[in-house]
Amino acid sequence: MQAIVMTGAGGPEVLVAREVPEPTPGAGEVVIRAEAIPVLFPETLLRSGAFPMPAEPPVTFGFEAVGTVTATGADVDTGLIGQRVAVTTLGYGSYAEYVCAPADSVTPVPDDLSAADAAAVLMSGSVALTLLDTAALTGSETVLIEAAATGVGAALTQLAKTRGAARVIATAGGPAKLAQARKLGADDLIDHNDPDWPSRLPEILGDATLDLVFDSIGGPTAAALLDAMTPLRGRVLSYGFLSGAPAQITATDLLFRGLSLTGCAGPHWLARVAAARATALHQVTSGALVPQIDTILPLDQAAEAHRALESRTPLGAVLLRP
Ligand SMILES: NC(=O)c1ccc[n+]([C@@H]2O[C@H](COP(=O)([O-])OP(=O)(O)OC[C@H]3O[C@@H](n4cnc5c(N)ncnc54)[C@H](OP(=O)(O)O)[C@@H]3O)[C@@H](O)[C@H]2O)c1
Questions:
Q1: Which CATH superfamily does the domain covering 123-268 fall into?
Q2: Has this prediction a pTM greater than 0.90?
Q3: Segment 98-114, tens digit of pLDDT
Q4: Which of 50, 106, 259, 319 has the fewest other C-beta atoms within 10 Å?
Q5: Please, where are the H alpha helices in the chain?
Q6: Residue 209 in contact with residue 141, Cβ under 8 Å?
Q7: CATH for 2-109+292-321?
Q8: Distance 110 CA to ligand 1 centre (A)
Q9: In a 10 Å sphere around its CB, with 0-12 CB exposed, 13-18 middle and 19+ buried, how is residue 50 labelled?
C-alpha cells in the first residue's frame, strides 16, 4: 500500500511517499481503509523535531484517519468490520491507505456525515467542546478566542454562544483570516499580526472585561491580557503555544488580580478530549458546527499539505485522500 513515511525530523520534504506492507491488527486493534486523513498543526511540530516522535523514523506519519474497518485483532468486536469510523493512532501511522489503531480510539461516524467532514472536525471539535465544558460559561460572559479563523479556534468561535458566551472577541492574522472569524460568529476582531494587539482591548471592551481567554498563542502577550480581565472571576484556559512558548504568566500575576489559569494539555486532558469525539461529530449532524475545509490533496502530496499549513494561508482544514 502507499504510505507517507517520515524519514527523519525536518522540513516538509522529510515526508516521502513509499510502498509499505499493509498493517495487520494486533490484539485490541483495528485496521481501516482510510478515506480522509486530517493534516494537523501539532503534526507539523512533531515533523519539525520540536517534539520527539513516539516512534523512531523511518515510520509512517500521522495521528488520525476516517474510513471503513477492514480487519479486527484479538479481543475486538468483529461486528466493527464494515463500519465507518474515525480512529486516532498512537502518534504515527495514519498517513496511509490502511491505518492500524487501538480499537478503543474508534469513534463511529454518523451515516449522514462524509469522511472529509468527520476528519475536519475530529480534533478541532473535540478540543473545543472540552475547552467549553471546562470554561463553564454562564450565559452573560465575554470571551476572547485567539487564532479564531481555523482549527480549534474556529470550532470555539462557532460553538461559544451555544455554550454560554454572550460576546465573542476573536483574534486572527490578516484580513482574510479576520473575515473568516467574523463569518464563524465573532462579534469583534483583532489582528494578532500586530505584536501589540492586546493594547486594542480597552477600546473594544469599553466598560466590559474579559471573563474567559482561550489562549492558544501563549508567550509574553498572555500577561498583557490580564488587566483587561474580570477581577476575581476571569480565567485563562491555556491550550497551545503558537508563539513558541506557553503563556508567560506567574502566580503573582494571577494572585493580585484574583484570576486563574488552567492548563489544558497532557494525558488526563487528552482522555477528556477523546471522550468528546463522538459529540463533536454529532455537533456537525445537528448543524451547530459547520466543517471548514480548505483543501483536499492526494495522499502522496502530504509534504505539500504541510507546506500549506505552515504558510498560514488555509482558511480551513487541509485533508489527504488516499
Ligand atoms: N491542548 C490540546 O488539546 C490541543 C489540541 C490541538 C491543538 N492544540 C494547539 O492549539 C493551537 C492551534 O492548533 P490548531 O490545530 O487549531 O491549529 P490551526 O488553526 O489548524 O493552524 C494554526 C493557526 O494558528 C495561527 N498561527 C500560526 N502560527 C502562529 C503564530 N506564530 N502566532 C499566532 N498565530 C499563529 C494561524 O492563524 P493566523 O494566520 O490567523 O495567525 C493558523 O491558522 C496549537 O498551538 C496546537 O498545538 C492543542
A1: NAD(P)-binding Rossmann-like Domain (3.40.50.720)
A2: yes
A3: 999 999 999 999 999 99
A4: 50
A5: 41-48, 115-135, 151-159, 175-184, 201-205, 221-224, 251-255, 267-275, 277-285, 302-311
A6: no
A7: 3.90.180.10
A8: 27
A9: exposed
